[in-house]
From TrEMBL:
SMART domains named among the record's database cross-references: RRM
InterPro entries noted in UniProt: EIF3B (IPR011400), eIF3B_RRM (IPR034363), Nucleotide-bd_a/b_plait_sf (IPR012677), RBD_domain_sf (IPR035979), RRM_dom (IPR000504), TIF_beta_prop-like (IPR013979), WD40/YVTN_repeat-like_dom_sf (IPR015943)
Location within or outside the cell: Cytoplasm
Keywords from the named record: Coiled coil, Cytoplasm, Initiation factor, Protein biosynthesis, Repeat, RNA-binding, WD repeat
Domain RRM: 57-141
Organism from which the protein derives: Drosophila kikkawai (Fruit fly)
Lineage start: Eukaryota, Metazoa, Ecdysozoa, Arthropoda, Hexapoda
UniProt protein name: Eukaryotic translation initiation factor 3 subunit B
Bias-annotated ranges (Acidic residues): 15-25
Molecular function, one GO term: translation initiation factor activity
UniProt key word Translocase: no
Length: 690
């Protein structure tokens, strides 16, 4: 058909009027085009090739070692190992001089531009050795810096945003403490309420629905509270608990703050093990990350008291990292063959670690100063099965619980080791005395629990059979061996909880939910013995005035809630809360008062006591007055309602009489009625007894 039509159109008889000349699209003479190519074809011009195409994924690594050709392969291996963690490297170029020696810089091309940006972020300022610190930049940055305008323009002034006061909780004039209560309202949905422990009843500060997926945790100084979510964790603070920072670490199960709240460590699972990330709290930047092989390792990193160092234990070594660079101290680990455990002093940069027995060499406990790495004390121990390190909170003493054996039984391949004739030693290191003397306390019974008095020189031990154990209290003094000051016999307790201020202790049985409050300064008398069935946690407030016991839904599903007691064991408050999860007192930062001022306050405490007692009475009187006014208002409201209803009842009397057959029943006297009991047979059954 097309051919036929073409033939028809090409015929001599075709009508020429149907096929006129094509229109002319040329611009007329003197035409001025005022539309630019960018306006007309902007989308297409944006896709045209440029000189920088292909270099977005290239990084320039400066300040690498200058090496001879014989050492070049080793250098390439080291640098490639570092940079390959950021992505797939496509090409690497090391410029060399006439002699084949590297010039001190290299070009690396990644598969994607995002991998190049990651390399700049992670490896810029990376310290390779004492003399070489990498300077890593994107190749495109050089073009950006070449095109700096000659005329400088000041940056735009940004609007100042008022930050929330993170420390307003310590400005309360009456120094009331705060606490949080968490309860699960739905799966992976936990409601958290924040309260202030004022008199006569706690005051609610804030309640957040769906605040966290699992639980919450306070920072050591009480500045932040951390919440857990699927994408990561977030920290909150200020008067209304605003979001301060978020840290993207999917699946985070556990977090740990540094003592001074400068850093946050998050622990989350990966297919190959636990991934640990150290974050800067102020900036939210990732400082360093690690992957731990095998199962979950909670609290793998341990911090020095001043945040200057963080350490972890490796195979036959301790890795100590300096902050804020997080490089290894002196760029190398401390080799300690046979190390089994370590712990920082809570007040000094001193590490205590212990080494197991090896090839007839006794076990050893060592104290080491950091950063000098100088060993200040060693203690050899024989027939050791295990050790536990317990620092006193003030750092004055270190107790090493030593599990010792009389006989050792091994199989032929030394795969199964059995310890026979177990007994226990407590090695007490006097940290503040010259040459750090060590005293020993031996106990032949099974040890169930150990606890130092936080402020003081006492420690307590639960020993014996679990159902009928003994609780012994020892006192440590300068120049003499620890002395037994009291033994409480036949006690069924499993845990010991000292008051943060010392003197008072709670002996708890967290299996049965029984508690005993003991005053260590008054001949260790038991002031109260309350019980809280199925209670699984005990929390002292920071001042040592109140104790809370809780039954969490993590343990049981019914009768969950918490009880609050005074330090003497008197019950103050019982709260039943469905799906109660946890109760946490808000920590307080250390006092700024010096020791002399604190001693003066304790000496003149009676003078301050009268002032505080008067405030408490005034507060209770004010509360009583408010309660009476509230009751009077409720009574007045009820009387108004009653008067209104009586008037309405009287207005309806005529209609009521008419409906009742013109009989006034309002004043009808009720006749006396005799009550009669009628009994009748309901059912009869016959049972045959064989």
């Amino acid at each position: 058909m097309a051919k036929k039509k073409s033939e028809e159109h090409s015929g001599a008889d075709a009508n020429d009027s149907d096929y006129q000349e094509e229109p002319n699209f040329e611009d007329p003479p003197n035409f001025v085009d005022n539309i630019s190519d960018e306006d007309l074809l902007g989308d297409m011009l944006a896709q045209r090739p440029s000189e920088a195409d292909g270099v977005e994924s290239v990084v320039v690594v400066d300040n690498i070692p200058k090496v001879e050709p014989v050492r070049l392969e080793k250098l390439k291996s080291v640098i490639n190992k570092l940079f390959s963690h950021c992505g797939d490297i496509v090409n690497v170029v090391y410029p060399v001089d006439e002699e084949g020696k590297t010039k001190g810089y290299a070009f690396m091309e990644y598969k994607h531009a995002g991998q190049a940006e990651e390399a700049v972020k992670k490896l810029n300022n990376h310290r390779l050795d004492k003399n070489h610190t990498f300077s890593v930049n994107l190749f495109t940055d050089f073009q950006k810096y070449e095109n700096i305008p000659e005329k400088w323009e000041p940056p735009t002034v940004q609007t100042f945003k008022v930050q929330s006061d993170l420390y307003n909780f310590i400005n309360d004039p009456d120094a009331y403490d705060q606490y949080c209560v968490a309860a699960e309202t739905a799966p992976n949905c936990v409601q958290v309420g924040f309260w202030q422990n004022v008199l006569p009843e706690p005051a609610e500060l804030e309640t957040r629905e769906r605040f966290t997926d699992t639980f919450v945790k306070w920072s050591p100084l009480g500045t932040y509270v951390v919440t857990f979510h699927k994408p990561g964790v977030a920290i909150w603070g200020g008067s209304s608990f605003q979001k301060i920072q978020k840290f993207p670490h999917p699946g985070t199960q556990f977090v740990e703050f540094s003592p001074c709240e400068n850093y946050l460590v998050t622990y989350g699972p990966t297919p190959t093990g636990q991934k640990i990330i150290i974050w800067d709290i102020r900036t939210g930047a990732e400082k360093r990350s690690f992957v731990a092989d095998g199962m979950s390792v909670l609290s793998m990193f341990r911090w020095s008291h001043d945040d200057k160092f963080v350490a972890r234990m490796g195979e036959n070594s301790i890795h100590i990292y300096e902050t804020p660079s997080f490089y290894l101290l002196d760029l190398k680990s401390i080799k300690i063959p046979g190390i089994r455990g370590f712990s920082w002093s809570p007040t000094d940069n001193v590490i205590a670690y212990w080494v197991e027995e090896q090839n007839q060499i006794p076990a050893r406990v060592t104290l080491m100063e950091i950063p000098k790495k100088r060993e200040t004390r060693n203690k050899n121990l024989f027939h050791v099965a295990d050790c536990k390190l317990h620092w006193q909170k003030s750092g004055d003493y270190l107790c090493v619980k030593v599990d010792r054996y009389s006989k050792l039984k091994k199989d032929k391949k030394d795969l199964d080791v059995k310890f026979l004739g177990m007994f226990y030693n407590f090695e007490i290191f006097h940290m503040r005395e010259k040459e750090i003397p060590v005293d020993s306390v031996e106990i032949r019974e099974l040890i169930l629990a150990f606890a130092w008095e936080p402020i003081g020189n006492k420690f307590s031990i639960i020993h014996g059979e679990p159902n009928s154990s003994n609780v012994s209290f020892y006192e440590v003094n300068k120049g003499v061996k620890p002395s037994l000051v009291k033994r409480l016999e036949k006690k069924s307790c499993t845990h010991l909880f000292w008051s943060p201020r010392g003197q008072f202790i709670v002996m708890a049985n967290l299996t049965m939910g029984t508690f005993e409050f003991v005053d260590s300064t008054n001949d260790y008398i038991i002031s109260a013995s309350p019980d809280h069935f199925r209670a699984s946690e005990v929390e002292w407030d920071p001042t040592g005035r109140y104790v809370v016991t809780g039954v969490s839904s993590w343990k049981v599903k019914e009768d969950t809630g918490f009880n609050m007691y005074t330090f003497q064991g008197r019950i103050i408050k019982r709260t039943i809360l469905k799906n109660f999860v946890q109760f946490l007192w808000r920590p307080r930062p250390p006092t700024l008062l010096g020791e002399e001022k604190q001693k003066d306050i304790k000496k003149n405490l009676k003078k301050y006591y009268a002032v505080f007692e008067q405030k408490d009475r005034l507060r209770l009187t004010r509360a009583s007055k408010e309660l009476l006014e509230k009751r009077a208002q409720l009574r007045e409201t009820f009387m108004e309602y009653r008067t209104k209803r009586i008037a309405e009842w009287q207005d309806q009397k005529s209609r009521r009489v008419m409906l009742r057959g013109h009989v006034d029943t309002d004043n009808l006297e009720t006749e006396e009625v005799d009550e009669e009991i009628v009994e009748f047979l309901v059912k009869e059954e016959i049972t045959l007894l064989e």
